[in-house]
């Protein structure tokens, strides 16, 4: 079964520093990949998605992610962290065979703390 | 558009009680789903629906029932609440294909004592 692993349940960076949140998937066939963000006491919001059109995907709020098939990874980055980026981030995956069902499998989540 | 709405926001139940969590969307989305969120476990899919009259089980369906009589509504029923069902529940909807964004409701925080 498809799965996704997020390395590090908690990441802390200083304001202005690089943000790197790690995500690895298990499928041998490249799936569809997503990053969602959850601000405190809110639902999830889509940051970006990989659909095989380009390996470097740009999302909202200055975030981007690079799909690396050889490493089965889809890490999320932002060059300069802002205090407002403090949130929980989820990587999610969907099998291409499930593309018409809308089913997503989520990782465990990574809490990003931004220090002043 | 109101988007995806969920009621109630908070609920406390005693073991063995039943209740229904409500979810509605006004975007004419075909796909709707229910997730539960527990610390360190991310979101796990409980049930989903690809259209009115069609539902299917997700990863953790035991103890929950769903139905989809209209496109707009997708209620989640807890048949006999257990402490293991203490969680935050999210409803989501999207156009069917996975490449369309899933829109999440604000969540329902449920405590079972």
Short description:
The complex is a heterodimer of chains A (about 120) and B (about 110). Chain A is built from no helices and 11 strands.
Outline the secondary-structure elements.
The complex is a heterodimer of chains A (116) and B (113).
Chain A: E1 4-7, E2 10-14, E3 19-25, E4 32-38, E5 44-50, E6 56-58, E7 64-68, E8 73-78, E9 87-94, E10 105-106, E11 110-115
Parallel strand pairs in A: 2-11
Antiparallel strand pairs in A: 1-3, 3-8, 4-5, 4-9, 6-7, 7-8, 9-10, 9-11
Chain B: E1 4-7, E2 10-13, E3 19-25, E4 31-38, E5 42-51, E6 54-57, E7 64-66, E8 76-78, E9 87-94, E10 103-104, E11 108-112
Parallel strand pairs in B: 2-11
Antiparallel strand pairs in B: 1-3, 3-8, 4-5, 4-9, 5-6, 7-8, 9-10, 9-11
Overview of the structural elements:
The complex is a heterodimer of chains A (116) and B (113). Chain A has 116 residues and is mainly beta. Chain A has strands at 4-7, 10-14, 19-25, 32-38, 44-50, 56-58, 64-68, 73-78, 87-94, 105-106, 110-115. Chain A is globular. The mean pLDDT of chain A is 90. Chain B has no helices and 11 strands. In chain B, the strands form 2 sheets. In chain B, strands 2, 4, 5, 6, 9, 10 and 11 form a 7-stranded mixed β-sheet that branches. The model of chain B has no long low-confidence stretch (mean pLDDT 93). The chains are: A mainly beta (116), B mainly beta (113). The A-B interface holds A 6, 9, 32, 41-46, 49, 51, 90, 94, 98-109 and B 4, 31, 33, 35, 40-45, 48, 50, 56, 58-59, 90, 92, 94, 96-102, 104-107.
């Amino acid at each position: 079964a498809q799965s996704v692993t997020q390395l590090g349940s908690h990441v802390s960076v200083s304001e202005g520093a690089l943000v790197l949140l790690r995500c690895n998937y298990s499928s041998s066939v490249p799936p569809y990949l997503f990053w969602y963000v959850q601000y405190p006491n809110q639902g999830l919001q889509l940051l970006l998605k990989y659909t095989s059109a380009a390996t470097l995907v740009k999302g909202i709020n200055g975030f981007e992610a690079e799909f690396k098939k050889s490493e089965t990874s889809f890490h999320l980055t932002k060059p300069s962290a802002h205090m407002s980026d403090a949130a929980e981030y989820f990587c999610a995956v969907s099998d291409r065979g499930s593309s018409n069902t809308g089913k997503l499998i989520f990782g465990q989540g990574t809490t990003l703390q931004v220090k002043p | 558009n109101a988007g995806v709405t969920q009621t109630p926001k908070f609920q406390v139940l005693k073991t063995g009680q039943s209740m229904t969590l409500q979810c509605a969307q006004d975007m004419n989305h075909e796909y709707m789903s229910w997730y539960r969120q527990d610390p360190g476990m991310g979101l796990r899919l409980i049930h989903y629906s690809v259209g009115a009259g069609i539902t299917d089980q997700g990863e953790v369906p035991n103890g929950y029932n769903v139905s989809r009589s209209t496109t707009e509504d997708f209620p989640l029923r807890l048949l006999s609440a257990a402490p293991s069902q203490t969680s935050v529940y999210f409803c989501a909807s999207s156009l069917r294909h996975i490449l369309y964004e899933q829109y999440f409701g604000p969540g329902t925080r449920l405590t079972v004592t």
